[in-house]
Amino acid sequence: MTATRPSGLTTAQWLLALLGLNAMWVTDLFVMDGGLARDNLLTVLGRATGLYGALLLVFQLVLIARVPWLERGLGMDQLTRWHRWTGFWVLWLVLAHVVFITLGYAASDGSPLVDELGTLVFDTQDVLKATVATILLIGVAVTSARAARRRMRYETWHFVHLYAYLAVILGFLHQVTTGADFVGSPIATAYWWTLYGAALGAILLARLLLPLWRNGRHRLKVQTVVKESPNVVSVYITGRRLHELPARAGQFFLWRFLTRDRWWEAHPYSLSAMPDGRGLRITVKALGDGSSWLRTLRPGTRVFAEGPYGSFTSNPAHRKVLLIGGGVGITPVRALLEELRGDVVAVYRANQWEDTVLANELRYLAERTGARLHMVVGPPDNWLLSAAHLVSLVPDVRERNVFVCGPPGMTEAVMTTLRELAVPADQCHAERFAFAA
């Protein structure tokens, strides 16, 4: 998602600057080691690709650590997108490291390539661990490709993805025992230990300790489940000291409902009402086994929530706002409509009237806040929400901050329309209503 631009450097610029600074340090430590003069060209390339691959791997860990500062500044969509593409670069650099090191050592020893590979894997300390780590990274990368993701349950993909942590540990053990850039310099050793320690510490803090502390503090549980339509339910959640929970309209949590057979599943659902300090609400469409069973939840069921996440939030500087929601992606838009004041226009896109979940609530909120509400209902059509259609609904669209949430296809089409209308990029905020990919 696109976050609201803060003054000065953006979060993305700070993060990229930090990555560039570390790349300079890695290069400096590599050159100071003297390997450029000592090793042949292939071995130098092998060491360099290994080091930059390790640096990007640490960067990946930071991206998925869900550090509040990064998450608020970039949003889960942006972090996930960066994490995905960085992962493929990590894989190519690791493979290049294996190829160049093997070729370089074979050239130095004058041995056949296959024999040199066997010697490295089975006779060199901890290289077998690195081999296993490489195989695990390949498996994670293959299952992360879009074609593979479409054929896998989210829970299966997530379980396979956890092996990436084992790959990180095995790769690090290989580096600290055999890597010349680890064992050859106390400064380099301290740097790499600090780098890995900081990344893993961020994951431990943000993804384990902070959620455990918040859930222990707030003790969330299901209050009631309300059937909104034949295939949509709203789950009302209560707890203690909810006024201290830093949740905002437009954000989402990763929810675990602690039933005997589903406690291990975590699903991202947006808040469908503005947090009021007394309770939270999510509204979910039964799209499969992962969500249809929610209608059977019993009051009192304990809930474990990670979050809040997302930068799909309003800003006091937003005086003129356009909200566009599609399908069940209307839920964060509905929450924003409840929070926003000023000149607000809301557009609800649905294929048929039966799909207009929470329509009565939207009408009530629009009347209460003075917002204008447009219901755009009809089958998928290039004309609906096209540039001409959107301008007819909202003539001053270029002057507005635009929030878009819906199925990926609809969201991308609307964002394309906004670009056609020359709406400034920093006024466009989008969130995909789909699992991170």
TrEMBL record:
Keywords: 2Fe-2S, FAD, Flavoprotein, Iron, Iron-sulfur, Membrane, Metal-binding, Oxidoreductase, Transmembrane, Transmembrane helix. It holds the Pfam family NAD_binding_1. It is a multi-pass membrane protein. It is found in: Membrane. Its main location: membrane. It comes from the Bacteria. Residues 215-315 form the FAD-binding FR-type domain. This is Putative ferric reductase.
